[in-house]
Amino acid sequence: MQDSPTQTTLQSTIEEAIVSGILSARIRPGTRLSENQLAGLFDVSRTRVREAMMRLESRCIVHVSPRRGWFVVEPSAEEAMMVYGARRAIESGLLRGMRVLSDAGRAAIRDHLAEEKAEMTAGNRQRLTCLMGDFHIRIAELAENPVLTEILRDLTARTILISMLYQSDFHALQSHLGHCRIAEAMEDGNFERAAELSIEHLDEVEMGLDLTRRPDPLSELRNSLSLPPKAFPSPSGGTLIQTDPIYKPFKTKGK
Amino acid sequence: MQDSPTQTTLQSTIEEAIVSGILSARIRPGTRLSENQLAGLFDVSRTRVREAMMRLESRCIVHVSPRRGWFVVEPSAEEAMMVYGARRAIESGLLRGMRVLSDAGRAAIRDHLAEEKAEMTAGNRQRLTCLMGDFHIRIAELAENPVLTEILRDLTARTILISMLYQSDFHALQSHLGHCRIAEAMEDGNFERAAELSIEHLDEVEMGLDLTRRPDPLSELRNSLSLPPKAFPSPSGGTLIQTDPIYKPFKTKGK
DNA sequence: CTGTTCTCTCTTGTATGCAAGACAGCCCGA
DNA sequence: TCGGGCTGTCTTGCATACAAGAGAGAACAG
């Protein structure tokens, strides 16, 4: 009766594009996603764009303000804490439940850490944000449980949005070291220790956030003036969706 | 910018109705959900029904077979194991991360266990299935983390579908005792023990499934003949959505 | 009786059209 | 100079129309 045995949730192209845009920190929280623009970009009608948006909304990645538009979520401080809390519970539970680390898994982790290290010297913040999130997805993949992986992928997307909002300065080295410690414990086969370390790591990252800061109340103004976002250099170009001002200047009284 | 601080995912009425129908074991896996019928029932157009379906699909609760219809998912054996694996990781991680059990929480658990006990003597299997699932949602609520609660609610829904498919006989007493043990450990403040017990409990339940059995390959035929499902008495009535045969008899050459 | 083809009706897939609301800018009065 | 209403243009919300595919049943050939 089921079409595919594993039933991997097939996403629409639009959905994938937006999620991967967030996971790679190319799309900022609060970005407006216009149905018409997306429909044009992907050459489909608004109907299918809306379907993608509905799905993204149920994954808490996108949010609609009635008759104003769709926006990438800007998690509140409270929500940020919840997301970190959830990740602590899930990732630690996942690690503690592991029994063996396969050779392939060991290799994947090593490769990932090497990449983190390499990219740290390059210092590309956007790329680093993406990598730091990816580590946790890699870990989830080790458990070979697509259900968990999918859950953690969405939480990672939200985490990346959170760090774009609240992370004043980026402790890449600290994160990297945290990841190394977790990996070490895993290589030792000490998954209980790895679980504890993952909690510590997530605590550290959460502590590094400035949750008192309002999520950039000036972002709208900033966008309207076409200024670059606060702590980020303006993207080099080629972004799928630019963070446009909400309302572009009208054709001054065209007819 | 955000409309609500906690941003609780607001579901459409249709979505809620279907999920709650599953959580209360009134809707069986494989049930066809016709867009037209739902549109009629809720007095809206197909558009809104489809939106609800899209959201449910992204939550792995519903599944579309192209141009045949929407169906409540029938998780495969493999998927069933993944769901249980995910629940083990998440629920144990959640419990192990708890620090205190509030008085309100203690009361909620006690009330729930009492209700389980009461309903066991009554022996209403449908109601019991619902209660047994609810226990885990109650636990999630104790952590006061809506993100986790939502994740576990969806996993619980899928679990209920799984048990409707694979649970040959219903070990309500066994489940109830497992819940009692977990609650006891929590009341003692021994959350580590509670976490271990939750893993054991989920293992037990999973072991109680007959995953070798194909998910009722005759269900379609059975429905077409309007026979009651295998081990369940036919619902007393008042169900929101009846498990209709896929194709009702046509008006014999109406025109 | 059995298998094949055809037709007809149902289903979802997708685009489109219209309505209602939100906001920017204008105009005007104080 | 400032504030309040008006208007126009954008947005999403929602219903509807039509296209395309899937399957049941009828008709028919062997």
TrEMBL record, chains A, B:
PROSITE patterns: HTH_GNTR (PS50949). InterPro entries: GntR_C (IPR011711), TF_FadR/GntR_C (IPR008920), Tscrpt_reg_HTH_GntR (IPR000524), WH-like_DNA-bd_sf (IPR036388), WH_DNA-bd_sf (IPR036390). Pfam families: FCD, GntR. Residues 228-255 are annotated as: Disordered. CDD domains: WHTH_GntR. Residues 8-75 form the HTH gntR-type domain. It comes from the Bacteria. Transmembrane segments: none annotated. GO terms for molecular function: DNA binding; DNA-binding transcription factor activity. This is GntR family transcriptional regulator. It comes from Pararhizobium antarcticum.
